[in-house]
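Figure 3 (text version): structure tokens given as input.
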């Protein structure tokens, strides 16, 4: 069964969707080709909005209308990861004096997975781990990838792997 055009006094087949509301709901009406062109020519999403509402809408549209947090927000996931990742107590003089202990240490399964995530050899020197981490951060940072969620999730995994290794290397130094 074909749907008729929803335009008043039109008996053509309605094949084209036209929104019935501005709230981005899935409600629509079907119009014929002639009337969908007329509808599109005259339709203005912002017609009932004030300048302030239009500005707020466009600002929100930049983040796909999803709530965002300032990077300085205390509960921002990336801030917590960065703070943990960037606290490199491993660079202390204690690390240099005890680097021979690294050769005696056995890595656990989580460490081996972390090395794999970073794409480096198991037992690599700490400064090489750091170099690789910095390269990966530059490659997968959301700002470098137009906010693509896939890269954001990959960066989270990379940061967690780096944190795992950082904690392991710190433990090796202190023993």
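Below: residues designed for each position.
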């Amino acid at each position: 069964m074909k749907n008729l055009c929803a335009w008043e006094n039109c008996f053509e087949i309605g094949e084209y969707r036209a929104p019935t509301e501005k709230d981005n709901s899935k409600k629509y009406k079907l119009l014929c080709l002639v009337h969908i062109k007329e509808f599109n020519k005259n339709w203005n999403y912002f017609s009932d909005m004030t300048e302030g509402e239009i500005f707020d809408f466009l600002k929100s549209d930049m983040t796909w209308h999803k709530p965002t947090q300032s990077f300085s927000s205390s509960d921002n996931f990336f801030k917590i990861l960065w703070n943990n990742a960037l606290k490199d107590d491993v660079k202390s003089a204690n690390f240099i004096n005890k680097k021979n202990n690294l050769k005696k240490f056995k890595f656990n399964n989580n460490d081996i997975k972390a090395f794999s995530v970073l794409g480096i050899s198991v037992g690599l020197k700490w400064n090489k781990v750091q170099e690789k981490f910095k390269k990966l951060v530059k490659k997968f940072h959301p700002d470098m990838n137009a906010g693509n969620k896939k890269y954001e999730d990959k960066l989270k995994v990379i940061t967690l792997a780096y944190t795992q290794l950082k904690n392991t290397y710190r433990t090796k130094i202190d023993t």
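The beta strands are 16-19, 28-31.
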